[in-house]
Amino acid sequence: MTTFHVLGFPRVGAKRELKFAQERYWRKELSEQDLLALAKALREKNWKHQAEANADFVATGDFTFYDHILDLQVATGAIPARFGFDSQQLTLAQYFELARGNKDQFAIEMTKWFDTNYHYLVPEFSKNTQFKANPAHYVNQYREAVANGHKAKPIIVGPLTFLWLGKEKGEAFNRFDLLAKLVPVYQQILTALANEGAEWIQIDEPALALDLPKPWIDAFQSVYADLSKVNAKLLLATYFGSVAEHAPLLKSLPVAGLHLDLVRSPEQLATFADYDKVLSTGVIEGRNIWRANLNSVLDVLEPLKTKLGERLWIAPSCSLLHTPYDLSVETQLQEKNPDLYSWLAFTLQKVEELNLLKQALNHGRASVQAQLDASQVAADARKNSKVIHKAEVAARLANLPANADQRKSPFAERIAKQNAWLNLPLLPTTTIGSFPQTSEIRHARASFKKGELSLADYETAMKKEIEYVVRKQEELDLDVLVHGEAERNDMVEYFGELLDGFDFTKFGWVQSYGSRCVKPPVIFGDVTRPEPMTVRWSQYAQSLTKKVMKGMLTGPVTILQWSFVRNDIPRSTVCKQIGVALSDEVLDLEKAGIKVIQIDEPAIREGLPLKRADWDAYLQWAGEAFRLSSMGVADDTQIHTHMCYSEFNDILPAIAALDADVITIETSRSDMELLTAFGDFKYPNDIGPGVYDIHSPRVPTEAEIEHLLRKALNVVPKERLWVNPDCGLKTRGWKETIEQLEVMMKVTKKLRAELA
């Protein structure tokens, strides 16, 4: 019989129950006991869904209060020593301090999980890191599942991926040298699970889809020789890309099974056709929401079933963490856009798709013929839909002027014209765009959406919030102001609601980090901008002040990356469609007198293909799409961009090729580490390194910001250095926001006086 399992489940609940409970706990409105009880109920619900869908194992160890890599840091004793916490006796409050910082320590650095929009907390390794096993996280969840009557499969990220995802801190060394100390700790964790009765343990090594150095690849043989001594069967899981180049190694490893992502890299299946152990086939998309054509999937699986028999397992391509919970609650979408609704599958629908595939493989297609027919009807309807394709969009892309994505003059000429009218002081200050989304803002938005607040009253409420933001910035004496984005629910969703070719869910939330969830738009058709989206809000904000007002847009790559994107045409084409649509908005802002315009692209780095051989092609079309978004602007219009929580060291030529007049980047958690690379590269344009971490409520000291700014001044000429926070302030409260910005401004003015 074919085995069906999942590689992980969404953690926050169908309606973000965990998010709201966490935030109440942080505000001391909910007890730890109640938070733990809610988490237990969510886990039990997840297991019940898997069991009811006929899964042979339920996934355990995948649930986390913040991040699964933070859980692994605790389990291996590798939490940062600077906090002074004991990983063996770590309290829940201390666990959250690792993630969010406290009055004495900044939070653990955060960056993107491979090429997804999920953020993990980066392990901090030192030459003297001492690992110590604490398997409680994994053991307790396994026990819970078994106690609920389930057959469970624990999941843990493997030692090589764990080390690879970390960073060296302190005295120079190679973290690879820690492997010999780490493996015995893994053995202890796996042994603890085996002693509980775990028959199979899934060990995730997604780093295999990267271009790992040879010593790291070579180490898999000895590492898994040691881990396989544990009295349990190991399923080595790879995902997010092809591992075909490692086929000889993977076939030789002493593991009981191997998982392949056959959605991202279907071609690699041929390389593993002679694999003689359990082969777990990731055939249902774990990162997007499109319904599978089950007949097409069975065309791949049926020959495998004949060949492998019971050694064939079926699964999603990766953890379902990246997909929303349940499509069936999207009644509004079903009524408004029934065609699109019929083309989608969320987590619960994906596990049901796997259930249908299992039944078809075990009992023949006829046993689920009606469901297969429905799947085929949906696939054919989507392929032939006339709603999706617009001839005028294709024509506009095909007939762009020569060099449409290039500015009229080089940066040196542009910046001179911009400085002439901007007349900003040395070390000009600004923020990244958003200000706190207060309960009043959220209540007004919710009331408006429910029809309880008229459009006029809603806009009056938003204008009141915008005026408040402008006045506060004036009081702080910031140089380039923003309107605060009170009217925006999300930096991508807002634009998706105003662009054609997009649609939306009501409960399609996915976790970005911790308690932060996003509800990505669905790009299902060709993209156009019917009318201006931000102009009147920016005009209104500018009318309130004599200071410069910055227009705020989200860039095409980020809109692409943070949406569920159609998979029937190349992503590059979708991205250029968005860029061209945004260019209409940029030119309208310019005509309205808003001549400093920020086009945020925090997702440029995360969009990189995992294999370096594919980088150039991606960076070429992504850079072109970004430049297209400001095509045609005058030299004296200043284009900003913002990027955060990603590494850029290895793509700096491509970042420079974006040719933004000013780039702002996240650097505070890494102690300006990233800025050093910009300095070594001699980044040619203006730059604003973030001087404090906005993802923590902690107010930085003057000494901390001064330390960072002085480091920046050692790298960036003072005439080209801007001062700003790491990212937008949407998630912060007003009290800490004002206090944080006051410190930033005080230090900036001190250094201005010194440099004058």
Could you walk me through the main structural features you see in this protein, from its secondary elements to its overall organization?
The protein is of the alpha/beta class. It has a domain of 341 residues: TIM Barrel, CATH 3.20.20. It is built from 27 helices and 23 strands. It has an eight-stranded parallel β-sheet. Helix 10 packs across helix 13. The longest helix is centred in the middle third of the chain and has 22 residues. It is globular, with a radius of gyration of 26 Å. It starts with a strand and ends with a helix. The mean pLDDT is 95.
Question: What attributes characterize this protein structure?
Answer:
alpha/beta, TIM Barrel, eight-stranded parallel beta sheet, 27 helices, 13% strand, globular
Which structural class is indicated by helix and strand composition? alpha/beta
| CATH architectural name of the domain at 415-755 | Alpha-Beta Barrel
The major beta sheet can be summarized as: 8 strands, parallel
Through-space gap between termini:
77 Å
| Strand element count | 23
Taking strands numbered 1, 2, ... along the chain, how are they ordered across the largest sheet?
Answer: 1-12-11-10-9-8-6-2
Number of helical elements: 27
Residues in helix, %: 40-55%
